[in-house]
Structures are given as structure tokens and as C-alpha cells.
Amino acid sequence: MKWVVRIVGGLLLLNLLGVGVLFLMGHRAGAGRIHASAEMTGSPEQVWPWLNEGEKLKQWISWLVEVRGFDSKAGLGKKGVWVMKDENNGGTLMEIEGTCIDYAPPSLLTLQLSSGGEFDGKQSYRLTNLGSGRTRLDADSSYHFASAFARLMEPVISAAAEKKLAGDVARLKSLVESKATAAVR
Amino acid sequence: MSPPSFARALLFVVAGESWAECVAGDLEEEFGLICQSRNHFAGARWYVWQVVRSVVPLIWIRMRSGEFRQAALAALLGAAVPLVMLDRLWSFVYSQVPLKDGIGRAPSLLAVNVAAVCVGSAITGTAQSSGKAAWTTALALAAAAGIAVWASAGGAPVLYAVWVVAAAPASSLIAFRWRRNR
User: Fold this and answer.
1) For residue A100, what is the enclosing H or E element?
2) Contact flag B100-A156 (C-beta cutoff 8 Å)
3) Selection from B22, B25, B47, B52 nearest residue B34 by Cα
4) Is the preceding peptide bond at A106 cis, omega within 30 degrees of 0?
5) Which among A10, A143, A156 has the least Cβ separation from residue B123?
6) Dihedrals φ, ψ of A71, to 5°?
7) A96-102: which pairs have CB atoms within 8 A and are 24 or more residues apart?
8) With 0-12 CB in 10 A as exposed, 13-18 as middle and 19+ as buried, what is A99?
């Protein structure tokens, strides 16, 4: 049974190594912050409704299945709920409560988000007019996780979240540009 | 004339040390007779079929004798447990993504899975006492890795699945050879 001890010991050693690396990475500058951006054809006024209206949000934010309580549009101080489908948790629905804390159409929208003791954070969308009918979108998020294990895993979670955000922003760009092209025709 | 090498290797892996010699001896004697009376192709076909139909009974005998249990336990600890635990860990990570995400895994996370399986399998390889035991464990590791990938909650691209199933036995055999040559 010496080899059983070797395997278990080896795996424990790997775990310890992983925990050490994650702990150090969790203390890096900018931990818990994620960013994605895209330049798209369309004016800020054309992009703004995609950030502000529930039905449009569902088209580009993956796994968002319902937006409740923003009375179809967000506005300063308004509260609402985003219902997300969690495929990694048996497809359960999870509610994220949001409060609009920055509202300056058509350039800045910031939501304070929190979810049932799992995390709280901010999601901010900034639109910059680049001229010639082009707009730059900067999406920034910062999150703080409630559980100690999630905080330890933050570097991996943030990397996955950033990849997801980049995919969503790319989908938004494609939607905005297809609508802008259709409007020109 | 010798029987097909792949069938002979399969027989030795499946039969284990205690049964391989006597089963192989009987089969090779009969194989020689068929080759003489008919031709080599007929003998080879008969040999392969005998090996294939013996696989399940031989595994059963080894499980009852306890010889196979060691390989199964090694496969469980060396490949299945690390893969299942990592799959659960990645599910937790993706579930913690604030705006949620799908079941597709980042290549870097899949690479961690492959590395963990290689380490676990290599440790089992260093613990084997003979070549036959090493091959049996390698086969069990491949099967355990395949089952763990198939049962994973996260997405498993074909290339990743092939890598895991190949890396587990390869790491075990390389580690066994390295230890034997020291």
C-alpha cells in the first residue's frame, strides 16, 4: 500500500502548490477587476439602448434569461433583477440584484450588483464617440466574492469572467453593426 | 510461425502474471496445429478470436483473485479521482463567474487536467513491480481516464479526450521504465 500513500501524497502536494500559486495571484494588482472593449460602427445613441433595455440585453449577454424591475429601461437609482441560467449548476436560475448608480446617456451606465451572499460588485459600460459614426465600448467590472474558497479561486474565476465578457461584447458589436447597416439601407 | 503480436500482448495484459503463461501456452500449441493443417491466416484468425472471447472471463478471474483490484485502485486514484475532482472544481469556478458561463472549458484548464492525470499516472507507474503489472495498470488507467472524461460535467473536446486517454497510460509506462532503469 506504499504506492497508495505515494499517489495521495503526490496529489496533496499538487493541491498545496496550486493553493500557494492562487494565493499569490489573488494579491496581484487589479485582482477581481475585468475589462473588455470593442470599437463598433454606430453612434453612441445607437449603442446605448443595447445597454439599457432588458429585451436587448438578453440578446447579447449570454445566459441572461430575464430582466425584471427596470421598467423596460434602467435609470439612476432604479433597482432591478437579472435572472441568469447557471449551466454549471444543473441549469438553475440565479437572481442578481442590480441598482443603477451611474446613468449618463449615451455615455455611462454603472450597475451595483449583488447576488444572494455569493458576490457583490460593479458593472460599468462606457461609450466614447470616436467620430465618423464609430463608438468605443469599455466594459469594466469589479467583484468581491463572499466565500473564502471563491476568493482563493478568484484568479481563475476572473480569467473565465473576462473571456465571457469579451465574448458578450463581441456579440454586441455584431448586433449593433448589423442593425446600423440595416438602418443605412 | 508466431501468433499476432497485438493479440498476444492483449492476452498478457488481460490475463496477468498468474494466468498468462499457461493460457498462452495452450493457445500457441493449438495455433501451431491449425497453421500446419490449414494456413497461417486461419491460425491467426482463430488465435485472435480465442483471445477476444477470453477477455471477459480472464478479467473476472483476476477480479476475484484480487490481482486486478490493485490495478483498478491505481487507475481510480491515479486518473479518475484527479479528473473528477478537477471537473467539479472547474464547474464551481464557472458557476462563480458573476454573469455565469457555459460548460465549455478554457484550454488552460484542460491542460491542468492533462498535467494532473500525467502526474497521478506516473506515480502509479513507479509503484509497479513487473512489466505485466505495469501494462495492466496502464490499460486500467486509460479506461478510468476515458470514463472520467465521458462522465465530466464540463465540455470535453475530442482532442482533449484523446490526449487524456493517451497520456494516462503513457505517463505510467514511462515512469515504470524510468524507475526500472535506475
Assistant:
1) strand A92-104
2) no
3) B47
4) yes
5) A10
6) 50, 50
7) A96/B98, A96/B99, A98/A70, A98/A123, A100/A70, A100/A74, A100/A75, A100/A76, A101/A76, A101/A77, A102/A76
8) middle
* Contact with chain B for residue A156, Cβ under 8 A: yes
Quick check: B98 and A94 CB within 8 A? no
Nine-digit cell string for B91: 464547474
Q: Which ipTM did the prediction report?
A: 0.82
Classify the C-alpha dihedral B165-B167-B172-B177 as positive or negative.
Answer: positive
User: In whole angstroms, how far apart are CA B59 and each of B20, B66, B79, B136?
Assistant: 12, 11, 20, 11
Choose the mutation target among B90, B91, B93 for the interface with A, i.e. most A CBs under 10 Å: B93
B126 has a chain A CB within 8 A of its CB: yes
pLDDT in tens, chain A (185 residues): 676 787 778 778 888 998 999 999 998 888 889 999 999 999 999 999 999 888 899 999 999 999 888 766 777 888 889 999 998 888 889 999 999 999 998 999 999 999 877 899 999 999 999 988 899 999 999 999 989 999 999 999 999 999 999 999 999 999 999 876 666 55
Q: Which residue of chain B is at minimal alpha-carbon distance from A143?
A: B98
Residue A53: C-alpha distances to residues A7, A166, A171, B21, B38 (Å): 54, 20, 16, 75, 81
